[in-house]
Amino acid sequence: MKSYKTYPAGTSIVRAGDPLDFVGSVVQGVASLSQTMEDGRRQMVGLLLPSDFVGRPGRAMAKFDVEATSEVILCQFNRAPFERFLHATPHLHERMLEMALDELDAAREWMLLLGRKTAREKIASLLLIVAKRQNAAPVLDGIGMVKFDLNLTREAMADYLGLTLETVSRQINALKKDGIIQLEKKRQICVNNIDQLRAETGTDFEG
Amino acid sequence: MKSYKTYPAGTSIVRAGDPLDFVGSVVQGVASLSQTMEDGRRQMVGLLLPSDFVGRPGRAMAKFDVEATSEVILCQFNRAPFERFLHATPHLHERMLEMALDELDAAREWMLLLGRKTAREKIASLLLIVAKRQNAAPVLDGIGMVKFDLNLTREAMADYLGLTLETVSRQINALKKDGIIQLEKKRQICVNNIDQLRAETGTDFEG
DNA sequence: CGTAGTTTTGAGTGTACTCAAGTCGTGTGG
DNA sequence: CCACACGACTTGAGTACACTCAAAACTACG
């Protein structure tokens, strides 16, 4: 019933429309949930980090693509036995409801970003979110200096933010030129002052 | 514990940040769930039609604005007794989980619209969604002629689609000039051929 | 008939897109 | 060890789609 599986970076975990015979959760790595239009336009609709749930109980068909952005370790459960267990454990529904509602809130905040924020605000918001999730404690310190890895290509960021990869590149370099961030190794971001970054997101909390 | 309340069109039902002491569901009318930035930019993150749930069990503070777009009748439950009832009725969690997951899917499809669709595709998608929800059966008939009311101002549509009201107006009139739709009374839409409209959405299913 | 709200239309602008070339970094094979 | 190739990233020039600002037309209502 339960198994661990490793997916190399860049590979597909599930494709939209495929039968989906398992559910699971991310143990390690970064996976993305996305949607693609016939002409190739792509929109990421979720960033799956460790502890995030994959799949939907009660649905046999995948609705979105799931891809391993970095190498991903997934803890998988076969769907049928998992659902029997779910029904035998009423308390679990409550926990899953909590998780679904949290994701729904996050999706709605993302809608504000996609619909109304400028390219610069989108980039700043993404950096702030990733900084928060990867590095929860230091964000709160007084000086506000934070360093973290951004395990996403420019293209993945673009798909997440509803931009082109060129615009992502230009805006990241603009933030760097303005002294908001520093780049050490292309994918490693150093934020000098987290409040300064927050001011660039356009919104107070989240971003 | 349970009561019905009527909100006139254009009034606020809940404001983000306010204490929220009830949950409920829409009985009649159209309400909107939205977020506003300090400088006034606004993004609708949900369209609440009859049968849709309002509020989040377990949270005392509203995270989004809820407004009556048309006159709205809400069936309300006080939060504390509702939550006691929820805990005494484990089966209810399952039902609420289903609803939350459906909303999450809808939110994710909306993210594709906001991030990647053109103004024309956005309008066509909105019209198709409202047509489906208000008028489920006729959408499926052979000829594909559908008539329905669009109880939204141009501004509300703009906030939902991440556009300006001027762009909404221009695109609606463009669809009319191209013979995809007809306008009877500004807010009443007549779709000649639903498949033609679907072709304008950029995606297969939903829109 | 006048006023306020909504919608349409016009003209000009700007942000992000497209297309294209060039640079950097890393891994491979001669 | 260097040459090369490949992918990721950067940078530039030109364009287009949607935005902004402004005015006019339509609607509803007192």
UniProtKB/TrEMBL annotation, chains A, B:
Keyword hit for Acetylation: no
Pfam families per UniProt: cNMP_binding, HTH_Crp_2
The HTH crp-type domain extends over 117-195
Superkingdom is Bacteria
Query: Keywords in UniProt for this one?
Result: DNA-binding, Transcription, Transcription regulation
Q: Which SMART domains match?
A: cNMP, HTH_CRP
**Has the keyword Phosphoprotein been applied to this entry?**
no
Domain (Cyclic nucleotide-binding): residue spans on this chain:
1-103
- Record protein name field: Transcriptional activator protein FnrL
The species this protein belongs to is: Amylibacter marinus
